[in-house]
Amino acid sequence: MAITAKEVNDLRSKTGLGMMECKTALTEAGGDIQKAVDLLRTKGIIKMEGRTDRASSEGRIGVAVAPDKTKGAIVEINTETDFTAKSDVFKAMVDKVVAEALKGGGGEVAKSAAIQSAIDDVRLTTKENVQFARGRVLGGTPGARVGGYTHFTGKVGVLIEVHAEGGATVSDELLADLCMHVAAGVPAIPLGVNESDVPADVLEKEKQIAKAQALEQGKPEQIAEKMVVGKIRKFYEDHVLTQQLFVKDDKKRIKELLPKGVTIKSFVRYQVGVK
Description:
This protein has nine helices and nine strands. By secondary structure, it is of the alpha+beta class.
Protein backbone atom coordinates (compact mmCIF):
# COMPACT_ATOMS: atom_id res chain seq x y z
CA MET A 1 0.00 0.00 0.00
CA ALA A 2 1.01 3.60 -0.60
CA ILE A 3 2.30 5.48 2.44
CA THR A 4 1.40 9.17 2.51
CA ALA A 5 3.67 12.03 3.48
CA LYS A 6 1.30 12.89 6.35
CA GLU A 7 1.59 9.40 7.81
CA VAL A 8 5.38 9.58 7.60
CA ASN A 9 5.41 13.00 9.30
CA ASP A 10 3.05 11.77 12.03
CA LEU A 11 5.37 8.87 12.81
CA ARG A 12 8.39 11.16 12.74
CA SER A 13 6.77 13.45 15.30
CA LYS A 14 6.10 10.46 17.58
CA THR A 15 9.53 8.88 17.29
CA GLY A 16 12.03 11.58 16.32
CA LEU A 17 13.37 9.32 13.57
CA GLY A 18 14.24 10.10 9.96
CA MET A 19 11.92 10.00 6.99
CA MET A 20 13.33 6.81 5.48
CA GLU A 21 13.19 4.94 8.79
CA CYS A 22 9.57 5.96 9.33
CA LYS A 23 8.47 5.12 5.80
CA THR A 24 10.06 1.68 6.02
CA ALA A 25 8.38 0.97 9.36
CA LEU A 26 4.98 2.13 8.08
CA THR A 27 5.31 -0.07 5.02
CA GLU A 28 6.09 -3.10 7.20
CA ALA A 29 3.18 -2.19 9.48
CA GLY A 30 0.70 -1.80 6.62
CA GLY A 31 0.23 1.91 7.30
CA ASP A 32 -0.77 1.46 10.94
CA ILE A 33 1.13 4.12 12.91
CA GLN A 34 0.85 2.41 16.30
CA LYS A 35 2.03 -0.89 14.85
CA ALA A 36 4.90 0.98 13.26
CA VAL A 37 5.83 2.47 16.65
CA ASP A 38 5.68 -0.97 18.26
CA LEU A 39 7.77 -2.40 15.45
CA LEU A 40 10.43 0.28 15.92
CA ARG A 41 10.42 -0.28 19.68
CA THR A 42 10.81 -4.01 19.15
CA LYS A 43 13.81 -3.42 16.92
CA GLY A 44 15.24 -0.97 19.43
CA ILE A 45 15.42 1.77 16.78
CA ILE A 46 13.35 4.48 18.47
CA LYS A 47 15.90 6.81 19.94
CA MET A 48 16.97 5.98 23.41
CA GLU A 49 17.23 8.71 25.98
CA GLY A 50 19.20 11.51 24.36
CA ARG A 51 20.93 9.16 21.93
CA THR A 52 20.35 11.10 18.72
CA ASP A 53 21.44 14.31 20.45
CA ARG A 54 24.85 12.89 21.23
CA ALA A 55 27.73 13.88 18.96
CA SER A 56 28.85 11.43 16.28
CA SER A 57 32.41 12.71 15.88
CA GLU A 58 34.12 9.36 15.25
CA GLY A 59 33.58 7.01 12.35
CA ARG A 60 35.00 5.27 9.34
CA ILE A 61 35.43 5.81 5.60
CA GLY A 62 34.42 3.03 3.22
CA VAL A 63 35.59 2.69 -0.39
CA ALA A 64 34.44 0.16 -2.98
CA VAL A 65 35.51 -0.15 -6.63
CA ALA A 66 33.84 -2.35 -9.24
CA PRO A 67 35.93 -5.36 -10.39
CA ASP A 68 36.38 -3.79 -13.85
CA LYS A 69 37.36 -0.46 -12.24
CA THR A 70 34.83 1.53 -14.26
CA LYS A 71 32.96 2.74 -11.17
CA GLY A 72 33.59 3.37 -7.48
CA ALA A 73 31.88 4.57 -4.32
CA ILE A 74 33.01 6.24 -1.11
CA VAL A 75 31.03 6.82 2.10
CA GLU A 76 31.53 8.22 5.58
CA ILE A 77 29.64 6.71 8.51
CA ASN A 78 29.87 8.42 11.90
CA THR A 79 29.43 7.16 15.44
CA GLU A 80 30.13 8.34 18.98
CA THR A 81 33.27 6.49 19.98
CA ASP A 82 36.48 5.35 18.33
CA PHE A 83 36.01 1.99 20.08
CA THR A 84 32.84 1.36 18.10
CA ALA A 85 34.33 2.72 14.86
CA LYS A 86 37.14 0.14 15.14
CA SER A 87 34.84 -2.78 15.93
CA ASP A 88 34.32 -5.62 13.45
CA VAL A 89 30.56 -5.08 13.41
CA PHE A 90 31.01 -1.41 12.45
CA LYS A 91 33.57 -2.24 9.76
CA ALA A 92 31.25 -4.87 8.30
CA MET A 93 28.38 -2.39 8.25
CA VAL A 94 30.49 0.24 6.44
CA ASP A 95 31.46 -2.38 3.85
CA LYS A 96 27.80 -3.23 3.35
CA VAL A 97 26.78 0.42 3.02
CA VAL A 98 29.46 1.26 0.46
CA ALA A 99 28.55 -1.86 -1.53
CA GLU A 100 24.95 -0.64 -1.64
CA ALA A 101 26.14 2.82 -2.68
CA LEU A 102 28.10 1.30 -5.56
CA LYS A 103 24.83 -0.03 -7.01
CA GLY A 104 23.55 3.53 -7.55
CA GLY A 105 24.24 6.10 -10.24
CA GLY A 106 26.99 8.67 -10.25
CA GLY A 107 26.98 11.66 -7.91
CA GLU A 108 25.86 12.05 -4.32
CA VAL A 109 24.71 8.88 -2.57
CA ALA A 110 21.08 8.85 -1.46
CA LYS A 111 20.47 7.01 1.82
CA SER A 112 18.39 4.04 0.67
CA ALA A 113 16.29 1.73 2.79
CA ALA A 114 19.01 -0.93 2.59
CA ILE A 115 21.63 1.54 3.82
CA GLN A 116 19.40 2.72 6.65
CA SER A 117 18.65 -0.85 7.67
CA ALA A 118 22.35 -1.71 7.90
CA ILE A 119 22.96 1.37 10.05
CA ASP A 120 19.98 0.62 12.29
CA ASP A 121 21.28 -2.87 13.00
CA VAL A 122 24.51 -1.38 14.35
CA ARG A 123 22.62 1.26 16.33
CA LEU A 124 20.76 -1.55 18.02
CA THR A 125 23.93 -3.52 18.71
CA THR A 126 26.14 -0.67 19.93
CA LYS A 127 23.50 1.65 21.42
CA GLU A 128 25.37 4.56 19.82
CA ASN A 129 24.19 7.36 17.54
CA VAL A 130 25.37 5.92 14.21
CA GLN A 131 24.75 8.22 11.23
CA PHE A 132 25.25 8.20 7.48
CA ALA A 133 27.34 11.33 6.88
CA ARG A 134 27.90 11.48 3.12
CA GLY A 135 28.77 9.50 0.01
CA ARG A 136 29.74 9.85 -3.65
CA VAL A 137 29.87 7.59 -6.69
CA LEU A 138 32.36 8.24 -9.50
CA GLY A 139 32.64 6.65 -12.94
CA GLY A 140 30.06 4.62 -14.79
CA THR A 141 30.67 6.51 -18.04
CA PRO A 142 32.54 5.47 -21.23
CA GLY A 143 36.31 5.59 -20.84
CA ALA A 144 36.21 5.91 -17.06
CA ARG A 145 38.70 4.15 -14.81
CA VAL A 146 38.33 4.47 -11.05
CA GLY A 147 40.78 3.84 -8.24
CA GLY A 148 40.19 3.78 -4.51
CA TYR A 149 42.23 3.87 -1.33
CA THR A 150 41.48 3.66 2.39
CA HIS A 151 44.10 4.45 5.01
CA PHE A 152 44.69 1.58 7.45
CA THR A 153 43.10 3.68 10.23
CA GLY A 154 39.84 3.95 8.26
CA LYS A 155 39.87 7.71 8.90
CA VAL A 156 40.85 8.81 5.37
CA GLY A 157 39.62 7.52 2.03
CA VAL A 158 40.09 8.57 -1.59
CA LEU A 159 38.28 7.86 -4.84
CA ILE A 160 39.69 9.08 -8.16
CA GLU A 161 38.31 8.93 -11.70
CA VAL A 162 40.50 9.15 -14.79
CA HIS A 163 39.58 8.95 -18.47
CA ALA A 164 41.60 7.31 -21.23
CA GLU A 165 41.24 8.18 -24.90
CA GLY A 166 42.89 7.20 -28.16
CA GLY A 167 43.84 3.73 -27.00
CA ALA A 168 45.58 4.97 -23.87
CA THR A 169 45.74 2.61 -20.89
CA VAL A 170 45.61 3.25 -17.17
CA SER A 171 47.53 0.90 -14.91
CA ASP A 172 46.42 -0.19 -11.47
CA GLU A 173 49.74 1.17 -10.18
CA LEU A 174 48.95 4.66 -11.52
CA LEU A 175 45.50 4.64 -9.91
CA ALA A 176 47.02 3.52 -6.60
CA ASP A 177 49.71 6.21 -6.75
CA LEU A 178 47.19 8.96 -7.50
CA CYS A 179 44.96 7.88 -4.64
CA MET A 180 47.87 7.66 -2.20
CA HIS A 181 49.04 11.13 -3.23
CA VAL A 182 45.61 12.70 -2.61
CA ALA A 183 45.28 10.86 0.70
CA ALA A 184 48.65 12.17 1.90
CA GLY A 185 47.58 15.80 1.34
CA VAL A 186 51.17 17.00 0.80
CA PRO A 187 51.87 19.91 0.60
CA ALA A 188 48.11 20.54 0.79
CA ILE A 189 44.85 18.75 0.12
CA PRO A 190 44.04 19.55 -3.53
CA LEU A 191 41.23 22.02 -4.13
CA GLY A 192 40.68 20.80 -7.68
CA VAL A 193 42.12 18.81 -10.56
CA ASN A 194 43.06 21.83 -12.71
CA GLU A 195 43.50 25.56 -12.11
CA SER A 196 39.97 26.25 -13.37
CA ASP A 197 38.56 24.03 -10.60
CA VAL A 198 39.78 26.29 -7.77
CA PRO A 199 36.76 28.19 -6.36
CA ALA A 200 36.75 31.83 -7.46
CA ASP A 201 36.22 33.12 -3.93
CA VAL A 202 39.21 31.14 -2.63
CA LEU A 203 41.42 32.49 -5.40
CA GLU A 204 40.27 36.07 -4.85
CA LYS A 205 40.99 35.82 -1.14
CA GLU A 206 44.52 34.55 -1.86
CA LYS A 207 45.12 37.47 -4.24
CA GLN A 208 43.95 39.98 -1.65
CA ILE A 209 46.19 38.48 1.02
CA ALA A 210 49.20 38.37 -1.31
CA LYS A 211 48.75 42.01 -2.32
CA ALA A 212 48.23 43.16 1.26
CA GLN A 213 51.44 41.37 2.29
CA ALA A 214 53.39 43.07 -0.53
CA LEU A 215 52.05 46.52 0.35
CA GLU A 216 52.77 45.88 4.02
CA GLN A 217 56.39 45.31 3.03
CA GLY A 218 56.40 48.76 1.44
CA LYS A 219 56.39 47.58 -2.18
CA PRO A 220 55.02 49.98 -4.84
CA GLU A 221 51.61 49.10 -6.35
CA GLN A 222 53.13 47.92 -9.64
CA ILE A 223 55.63 45.64 -7.89
CA ALA A 224 52.90 44.39 -5.56
CA GLU A 225 50.78 43.30 -8.54
CA LYS A 226 53.71 41.34 -9.97
CA MET A 227 54.29 39.69 -6.62
CA VAL A 228 50.64 38.63 -6.57
CA VAL A 229 51.13 36.82 -9.88
CA GLY A 230 54.06 34.90 -8.43
CA LYS A 231 52.17 34.07 -5.22
CA ILE A 232 49.18 32.74 -7.16
CA ARG A 233 51.44 30.62 -9.35
CA LYS A 234 52.86 29.05 -6.17
CA PHE A 235 49.35 28.67 -4.77
CA TYR A 236 48.34 26.67 -7.85
CA GLU A 237 51.43 24.49 -7.55
CA ASP A 238 50.48 23.67 -3.95
CA HIS A 239 46.71 23.32 -4.28
CA VAL A 240 45.93 22.07 -7.81
CA LEU A 241 46.29 18.29 -8.13
CA THR A 242 47.89 18.15 -11.58
CA GLN A 243 50.40 20.86 -10.56
CA GLN A 244 51.45 19.26 -7.28
CA LEU A 245 54.78 17.50 -6.85
CA PHE A 246 54.23 13.76 -6.55
CA VAL A 247 54.46 12.68 -2.92
CA LYS A 248 56.62 9.64 -3.83
CA ASP A 249 58.95 11.56 -6.18
CA ASP A 250 59.23 15.32 -5.70
CA LYS A 251 61.05 15.66 -9.02
CA LYS A 252 57.80 14.99 -10.90
CA ARG A 253 54.47 16.76 -10.98
CA ILE A 254 51.25 14.74 -11.04
CA LYS A 255 50.53 15.78 -14.63
CA GLU A 256 53.84 14.18 -15.64
CA LEU A 257 52.65 10.79 -14.33
CA LEU A 258 49.75 10.69 -16.76
CA PRO A 259 50.28 8.77 -20.03
CA LYS A 260 49.31 10.52 -23.25
CA GLY A 261 45.53 10.47 -23.64
CA VAL A 262 44.88 10.05 -19.90
CA THR A 263 43.27 12.83 -17.87
CA ILE A 264 42.06 13.08 -14.29
CA LYS A 265 38.36 13.89 -14.30
CA SER A 266 37.59 14.14 -10.59
CA PHE A 267 38.48 12.91 -7.13
CA VAL A 268 36.94 12.68 -3.68
CA ARG A 269 38.87 12.76 -0.42
CA TYR A 270 36.97 12.05 2.80
CA GLN A 271 38.41 12.40 6.28
CA VAL A 272 36.33 11.51 9.31
CA GLY A 273 34.93 14.64 10.90
CA VAL A 274 36.44 16.99 8.30
CA LYS A 275 34.09 18.49 5.71
